[in-house]
Amino acid sequence: MIAALRLIRRDFPNRRVRCLTDSQLLVEQLRGAAAVRAEPIRPLSQPARELSGQFPPAAFELVRIPRDLNRLADALAGEALGGRQALLRRAGVGREGIGR
Q1: Are the CB atoms for 19 and 68 separated by under 8 Å?
Q2: Among positive and negative, which fits the CA dihedral 84, 85, 90, 96?
Q3: CB 3.0 to 4.6 Å from 97: which of 36, 47, 91, 93, for a disulfide?
Q4: pLDDT at position 92, please?
Q5: Phi and psi at residue 20, to the nearest 5°
Q6: pTM for this model (two decimals)
């Protein structure tokens, strides 16, 4: 989300933004209604809140999609990741090469 908001601010200024997530916790944390307790997420929380705060309220929307309605997106993401892993296996790249 941080990378996406930075890209939008840089390349598409003055655009409306709608972030969709299936994480109720993420929505509550970004709105300041829930504490960020997970240590790995703490350093990301403040930059995400600051970036989202740089958009006028009418131009930024954070929407929670109920998990059960997100099955198709999960299936498509799994298919895309599976395809990437298959390509890496064919190229002889091990798991250590994934994500590079």
Answers
A1: no
A2: positive
A3: 93
A4: 74
A5: -105, 135
A6: 0.64
Indicate the pLDDT class of residue 87, thresholds 50, 70 and 90: low
DSSP assignment string, the chain:
-HHHHHHHHHHSTT--EEEEES-HHHHHHHTTSS----TTTHHHHHHHHHHHHTS-GGGEEEEEPPGGGGHHHHHHHHHHHHHHHHHHHHTT--GGGTT-
Residue 46 to residues 24, 43, 71, Cα–Cα distance (Å): 18, 7, 30
| Pairwise CA distance, residues 15 & 33, whole Å | 26
Residues 53-70: pLDDT tens digits? 999 989 999 999 888 777
